[in-house]
Specification:
CATH class of the largest domain: Alpha Beta
Structural class: alpha/beta
Bound molecules: S-adenosylmethionine
Number of strands: 8
Mean pLDDT: 97
Helix content: 25-40%
CATH architecture of the largest domain: 2-Layer Sandwich
CATH topology of the largest domain: Methyltransferase, Cobalt-precorrin-4 Transmethylase, Domain 2
Distance between the termini: 32 Å
Order of helices and strands: HEHEHEHHEHEHEEHE
Largest sheet: 5 strands, mixed
Number of helices: 8
Length: 216
C-alpha cells in the first residue's frame, strides 16, 4: 500500500520510490495518472489498472499472483489508497490469505487538512464525501456539529457554496476550515464560520480539490 502525492510531486517518500522500483507490478487506480508520476520518477515497473469497476474480479487474481511470489504495489491517483479510493478488497483479501501487507505512508488530504486547520484534533471522524442531496447533507453536517471533536469531509468544488449555505442556515456559529488545492500552487486555507468563508470566496467560482473540517 503505497501513498503518493496529493498535488506536490515532491511529497513522494524515498521509500515509496524504492518500493515502486522494486515491485514486480504496480496496481494503479488509473494507469495514465500513475504513468505520469512514474515517468517523472524514471520508474519503469509495469502497471495494471485496478479500480472500482474491476476490483471484485481482480482482487482474487492479484492475491493469486502474490501467493505465487510476485510483489505488488497498490497506488491510487493521489494520496493514501483505500481512503475514499479503491484498494479495500485487495488489502482485505491479501490479509485473509496471510500475505504480508505493509504500508508506505505518505500524504492523505484528510489528515493534512485536519492538521493544518487550527481546529480541535484531539478526537476526529472521517466521513468521506459529503452526501449530495440537501437533506442528507444537512443531516451529516448536523451530526458533525454535534460531535465531540472535528469531522473531516471530502467535497466537490461545485457544491462548496451550497454546503456553506446549509451551515450558515443551521449552524452559523460552527467553526470550519476549507482546505483547497492543498500542497499545490493555488493552495488556500479558508478558516472561520460559514459566513466568514462565503465572504472570502465572494463572487469567485470555486475550483480545485476541497477538504472541509467541521469542529464539533
Ligand atoms: N485517497 C486520497 C487521500 O488520501 O487524500 C483521497 C481520494 S478522494 C477520491 C479525492 C478527494 O480528496 C478530493 O475530491 C478532495 O475532496 C480531497 N483532496 C485530494 N487532494 C486534495 C488537495 N490537494 N486539497 C484538498 N483536498 C484534496
Amino acid at each position: 500500500m503505497v501513498a503518493t502525492p496529493i498535488g506536490n510531486l515532491e511529497d513522494i517518500t524515498l521509500r515509496a520510490i524504492r518500493v515502486l522500483n522494486e515491485v514486480d507490478v504496480i496496481a494503479a487506480e488509473d494507469t495514465r495518472n500513475t504513468g505520469r508520476l512514474l515517468k517523472k520518477l524514471e520508474i519503469e515497473t509495469p502497471m495494471l489498472g485496478y479500480h472500482d469497476h474491476n476490483e471484485k474480479r481482480f482482487a482474487p487474481q492479484l492475491v493469486e499472483r502474490m501467493l505465487n511470489g510476485e510483489r505488488i504495489a497498490l497506488v491510487s491517483d493521489a494520496g493514501t489508497p483505500l481512503i475514499s479510493d479503491p484498494g479495500y478488497r485487495l488489502v482485505n483479501a491479501a490479509v485473509e490469505a496471510n500475505i504480508y501487507v505493509t504500508g508506505i505512508p505518505g500524504p492523505c488530504a484528510a489528515i493534512n487538512a485536519l492538521a493544518t486547520s487550527g481546529l480541535a484534533v484531539h478526537e476526529f471522524s472521517f466521513r468521506g464525501f459529503l452526501p449530495k442531496k440537501s437533506t442528507q447533507m444537512a443531516r451529516a453536517l448536523a451530526a458533525a456539529v454535534a460531535e465531540e471533536g472535528s469531522t473531516i469531509f471530502y467535497e466537490s468544488p461545485h457544491r462548496l457554496k451550497k454546503t456553506l449555505g446549509i451551515l450558515l442556515e443551521n449552524h452559523p456559529e460552527a467553526k470550519i476550515c476549507v482546505g483547497r488545492e492543498m500542497t499545490k500552487l493555488f493552495e488556500e486555507n479558508m478558516r472561520g464560520t460559514a459566513a466568514d468563508i462565503l465572504k472570502i470566496i465572494g463572487e469567485r467560482t470555486v475550483k480545485g480539490e476541497i477538504t472541509i473540517i467541521v469542529e464539533g
